[in-house]
Amino acid sequence: MSAIEILSWPFKQESINKINNNEHYLNYPVIYVLNGNKEAYIGETVYFKSRMKAHLSARKNVSQINLIKHEKFNRSATFHLETKLINYFLGDEKYTLQNKSKTASDFTHNYYDKPYYDQQLFKEIWQRLHELKLVDHELHVIENKDIFKLSPFKELSIEQLELKEKVLEFCEKQVSANPEEYGSLLVIEGEAGVGKSVVLSSIFNTIQERAEEASSPLYQTENYLVVNHEEMFKTYKGIAKQVKHLKAKNFAKPTPLVNSLQKDNKKADIIFVDEAHLLLTKPDTYNNFHGNNHLEELLKLAKVVVIIYDQNQVLKLKSLWGAATLEQLKKRSTYTEEYQLTNQFRMQANDEVINWINAFKNKQLLPLPHDENYEFKVFETMKEMHDTIKMRNSEFGLSRVVSTFDYLHKKDGGTYYVNESNGEYKMPWNTTSTKYTWAEKPETVHEAGSIYTIQGFDLNYVGVVLGPSVQYDAVRDEIVIDPSKYMDKGAYSGTEGIADVNEAKEKIVLNSLNILMKRGIKGLYIYASDDALRNKLLAGQNRDNR
Q: Which residues make beta-bridge pairs with 211?
């Protein structure tokens, strides 16, 4: 079998003229990379020479042509490999990409022997690109980057593509309407791990591309992607640096954007909100938000608002969303639509594992789940769990211990620890970085992450410390939550107007559990601080292993 060949020429007319017209690749499926010092474009074609002529007259900031050929290429394979290369080039971060988003008609379908091209041949292509210094990082390094996982060029599922087309249609139609006081609202609901942020990244990139196209209904629209989460905000800003059609100024946190638009007396065209369950539902004067509700203010400041929302991921009372609040805002909107995303993408786990976590979130303890392809394990000590996580991290990368917020955590200076309840072992709480997300820093394998560093992100293996707030009642055979032992006191501020404060606090703790347990792609480990809960879980595990 012949190997991958990569031929290179200067990006000049003379180079194209010198290509022999008898070369078989001129009428054969190939992939190509055009690159300069800082920018690159990736494409595929069956008419290489004419395609390069078209690029010569239109494409700027590139100086070299790199043709990738192989005797087993076919059009389905080159189309698929082109998409894959775009995503990995984005994660490699060597170049800013000039590529535009795929459309639904460009969906990468199944084809004959796809696993061979997807796995073996792609690895060979990347190895050659690495040898030629066209890329900087190896595949496994890129695959563990958050910027790669939220790439706007990701291959979407049919369900995700349908959603993307629906959102684009909604935006194009409603942005030309004349809104009343409140703009139009599209609500996309889905629980942790269904790929909400991936779809949103893809949609926003396409929206921003169309904002530059004179023929588009979205031409010259002013649009923003908003997220009230520091770590996610870093990732989106990182993506903006690598994609030509995205600008950092179009990514914002809700309070600064609201205040800026109000100050300038401006109205945006479209505002997308990721993790909308983190929006404030009460004034927060400490952080300079003086409205009653982030979403309400955004609806007043945009013609169209699209939100990604999961009521089971609310982590603060001042962000506590009730169905009534959302319904009220829907009624005030000029026009409203809803969409549900359902298919789990993050966890490579069966329904038994997912059902166990969902039941735990509802304070029910089911028999421990079995899954041959997903490692679910309970540990007797936190040290054993941490040692196993470190081992998995050395094998697969991106494996971390996280904990419920049941231990004091100091932001500025000082060291606070997550403590083992049945031993002397302890782990320092997570540190933060202005540049990198927490789990991407190698040294954080020695720390315990909080809900605020890990929400919205993937890990390969997650070790969850269930702190003292999570207990087991043997008489009632159910999980009991003690909100007084939950140390995130900021989560409990803003109790005004809440009928049952204790129940609301309990929901905050249960939501955090749900988020932490659904971080792991390949496995979930659990250590419980509460003796009764730990013994119950271990007894179930030992019984199953007999």
A: none
Residue 103 has pLDDT above 70, yes or no: no
Neighbours of 352 (CB within 10 A): 15
Q: How many residues are present in the chain? A: 546
Q: 238: alpha, beta or left, given left = phi > 0 and alpha = psi -120 to 50?
A: alpha
Q: Are the C-beta atoms of 107 and 157 separated by less than 8 Å?
A: no
Nearest to 406 by CA among 312, 527, 537: 527
Residue type, 88: Y
Say what angle helices 351-361 and 501-517 make with each other, to 10 degrees: 160
The answer to whether the beta carbons of residues 161 and 339 sit under 8 Å apart is: no
- Tell me the pLDDT tens digit for each residue of 34-77: 999 999 999 999 999 999 999 999 999 999 999 999 999 999 99
DSSP bridge partners of 465: 403, 527
CB 204 within 8 A of CB 355: no
Query: Cβ-count burial of 496 within 10 angstroms (0-12 exposed, 13-18 middle, 19+ buried)?
Result: exposed
The residue type at 445? V
**Residues 6 or more apart from 204 whose CB is under 8 A from it?**
152, 223, 225, 246, 272
Report phi then psi at 69, rounded to 5. -135, 155
Calculate Rg over the CA atoms of the chain: 25
Q: Is 468 helix (H, G, I), strand (E, B) or coil?
A: coil
Written as six digits, the tokens of 24 are 């078989």
According to the model, what pLDDT value does residue 323 have?
A: 65
Which of 354, 324, 352 is closest to 342 using CA atoms? 354
- State the pairing for strand pair 459-466/520-528: parallel
d(CA 106, CA 76): 11
Minimal CA–CA distance to 337: which of 189, 541, 123, 118? 189
As a whole number of angstroms, the distance between CA 316 and CA 509 comes to 9
Provide φ and ψ at 542, rounded to 5°.
-65, -40
Q: How far apart are CA 353 and CA 348, in angstroms?
A: 10
Tokens representing residue 226 in the block: 């908003």
List 40's β-bridge partners, or say none: 35, 97
Amino acid making up residue 509: V
pTM score of the predicted model: 0.78
C-alpha neighbours within 13 Å on the C-beta side of residue 306: 27
- Angle between helical axes of 122-131 and 75-92 (0-180°, round to 10): 50
Residue 66 is inside which H or E element, if any? strand 64-69
Structure tokens at 71: 């005797």
Which letter, b or e, does each residue of 364-396 get, where b requires 16 or more Cβ atoms within 10 Å of its Cβ? Answer: ebeebbebeebbbbbbbebbbbbebbbebbeeb
